[in-house]
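Our consortium's second objective concerns turning raw sequence data into structural hypotheses that experimental partners can test. To show how far this objective has progressed, the report includes one record in full. It was chosen at random from the queue rather than selected for favorable results. The single chain below, 114 residues long, was entered without modification.
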Amino acid sequence: MFLSSFLIDFDHYLNAVRITKKFGFFSALKFYERLQKKEEKEKEFGIKKKGIFQPFHTIEFHIFVLALGLIHEVFVYVFLGMVFHSILDFAYLAYKDKLYKREYFLIRWLIEKL
């Protein structure tokens, strides 16, 4: 459960690799530092954009992992760790007035992409 609360953020790393074409962990950190500075400047001008899509943070992925829990109980603990992580993410985003940044539904993201 503890590990899954961290592993859910692997999609952040995958997005950084996809965009920067660099596999280094520190490259990913630098990418997100630059992105955060850019987003803060945009917010100063009233620009509020969605962030990079993070599939592991969607409701559908959570449900998928919970369904895997029907096959093996370890996935129930993975699910609980993910829910704990997501609650903390939601609280942080609400505190920072950044709830608009995250897409919570895979279906809605797919519809927007089509």
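The partners drew two points from this record. The mean pLDDT is 95. The chain has one domain: 4-113. Both points have been shared with the crystallography group to help prioritize constructs.
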